[in-house]
Amino acid sequence: MKRADNRKLHMVGLRDVRDINQTVFLHLIRERQPISRAEIAKATGLRAGTVSAIVNRLIREKLVYEGVAGPSSGGRPPKYLYVNAESAYVIAIDIGVRDSVYAVSDFNGRLLTQRAMLTKGEPEAFLRSLAGEIKDLIGAQYARTRFKAVGVSIPGLIDRDEGTLVISPNLGWKDIPVRAILEEELGYPVYVENDANAAAFAELWYGPLEEVGVRTLLFVLVVEGLGTGLIINGELHVGSRVGLGGFGHMSLDPNGPLCSCGRRGCWETLASNRATLTRYRAVTGTSIGSVTDLISLAQQGDQAALETLRATAAYLGEGIANLAHGLSPETIVIGGEIAGAWQIIGPLIREKVQSRYILPSRINLNIRPASVQRPSLFGAIPIALQHCFHPAQRFDALKRAVTPRIKLPAKVAGR
Amino acid sequence: MKRADNRKLHMVGLRDVRDINQTVFLHLIRERQPISRAEIAKATGLRAGTVSAIVNRLIREKLVYEGVAGPSSGGRPPKYLYVNAESAYVIAIDIGVRDSVYAVSDFNGRLLTQRAMLTKGEPEAFLRSLAGEIKDLIGAQYARTRFKAVGVSIPGLIDRDEGTLVISPNLGWKDIPVRAILEEELGYPVYVENDANAAAFAELWYGPLEEVGVRTLLFVLVVEGLGTGLIINGELHVGSRVGLGGFGHMSLDPNGPLCSCGRRGCWETLASNRATLTRYRAVTGTSIGSVTDLISLAQQGDQAALETLRATAAYLGEGIANLAHGLSPETIVIGGEIAGAWQIIGPLIREKVQSRYILPSRINLNIRPASVQRPSLFGAIPIALQHCFHPAQRFDALKRAVTPRIKLPAKVAGR
DNA sequence: GAGCTTTATCTGCAAGGATGATAAAGTTCG
DNA sequence: CGAACTTTATCATCCTTGCAGATAAAGCTC
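Above: the input entities. Below: the structure tokens describing the complete assembly.
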């Protein structure tokens, strides 16, 4: 059925050149605004005339506007360019096990409004009430605003093409047509993504400037469960259409605790918030509400709390060591409440990873806590925004077209 | 030091359009030769005139030639096009722990000559004697041939930029400037790659035609050690410059056997050929030379051998289950001698993976043995050939240029 | 204020693919 | 046999892209 002959190849044309360069410009301007045409020319290597042409096209399309003139550096002063933040707005939704957050972001990816509500009730009813709140917010504050898209991040297995949540053990949801529901309610295109993936995306867009060149990043999101998001070559790794569960169910110990997936010793059963709190309760006999509370206790000198966090850090380190060696990312980011205890867990995680690495000296692995407070929410913004730009998809088409294939001769020469 | 301002952006121009389309054509012709201009037009969606222009350019550059006219399908008969196999030759070298193989391949990626020699002696001396044999072969059979590149696949950690083998525990080599040595001896550009990565590449290029659309593939190479190669989006995942060790040192059991890396229960200590043979010896008290021999024994009804293979299959399945869930590749390929026992190990591996997967029904995961006998050798061919085509690199440049970045506001709104 | 630098624009050019007409070489069928 | 139709490949023309070099605008320096 999947015949080679039926595959449509996507070729490249002048329009692609224009679109790609235009998008590069847009991102460049957004990244370094304010910026002058001359600076763009220097950064891109394009001729000044070409730069003007492209910039003026962007201005004509109202994606960019010309601000005041900047200070002269010994010659004609530059005219500063800015991304027109009002040219596109998106809605970001982060559905968590306890609470869900929705937010409005402008074209610059900046959060304008952010509100939370408890996650409760039947999935569909909850989503509709969430949409209702969003519609209220829009009516009250953004009546004249045109939204381009909605980005949703959810803990669980996502069918990206359909925009449905296939299953989420932690939410207790199954087969929820998230996109269908929200598109019906809101009337904007909805893009659904796994929370850890969104979080990884957030680091890519909002992460520290020193990491501008980073192309490969692993995000470890520690919440009720434990998820991982993987950025490879500056792109979210999504694997096959359905199925990217992340490394939460990587088994680290065949004799470990039983996991909801039926196996033993999954990473999630050892290092998630639930595992951490359970472990604390097992040791002390007292229940505690959240990992944030546990961190407070540890910082106040509670030895049991401290040891519990240290144990979690060790398990995190174990799993990260496996992945660090296997994927060799440039950066590993840990997010979730536990990242608030970085002074405690950071060194332990690093130590674990270093002890496993064969060549710690030559490998430049950066391990750090997340740079935003709720990465899965911040990630939902680029999830929505990226769909305002087509070229990413076009790149994919190009790459697909170039994968070669060699027919093997009937007999293979033995050795 | 890594300032954003210093990053040179790579823009797109007319030349890129031409190069990319030309390369797409070349691959298309190679994949489906013989093919007519009209068929190319249908496959690409380009106009007949455009197709002619590009094809004639390729013919002028001697990369393609026009063969005899094909059979008419009711009108003017097509002129068949073929890739000029003689337009480029490459040398492939696969350095193994026991033996090493070198081969000559034409531009179609077809093996023309293949020879083996034992891997022994000091690394540098061995590489020079290997180069000497290759030079002899060239002198005898390919005196008039122009080679474009040399691809080398080695088990171990590679510094791709330098072309050096950083370390190979299994070979017992360390800090060997493979590229420098071979380029000095042979005079052609040398590209060095990890053996499992090369093997993954081999599946991408030589794999079954049904998998033409496959973009994500995991190769598990079981030799003395155990390595993994990962293809993501049709591209080899190489991670940071130095460091991709693969998942061989993923720990599956904190109480497992001690590994050379200092940890316990690494996948390699459980499922590699060495582990398998050690396990057989531990059970039976008798030593055996190779896994191939072990498979023969099992097929002859030796219960101990059969059980040994089954145990290895279970461990392979364990590791693969971890990775399948975390990376969600479309295809997982297992290579090495043990793949010869696919009837025995295949079902067991599948079972292990299925039992771990939360949703086996909806996930379309293809697990199969390697489609070539020595995948690391076959992989060395595309390693060399791919450098004859620039666009892959250019795509990378494009993507890098488009990665956006948002400056965070000073204060992040709490929730 | 002359000369220089920096910034932005303008005008013509080369090269890519798109388009539609045309030629070439068969098949089909009355 | 030959007119009509198909399939395949080419040609001349057009639009768009980025490129190049000249030119204009606006400030600094001495």
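Note for the figure: Residues 1-7, 390-415 of chain B have pLDDT under 50 and may be disordered.
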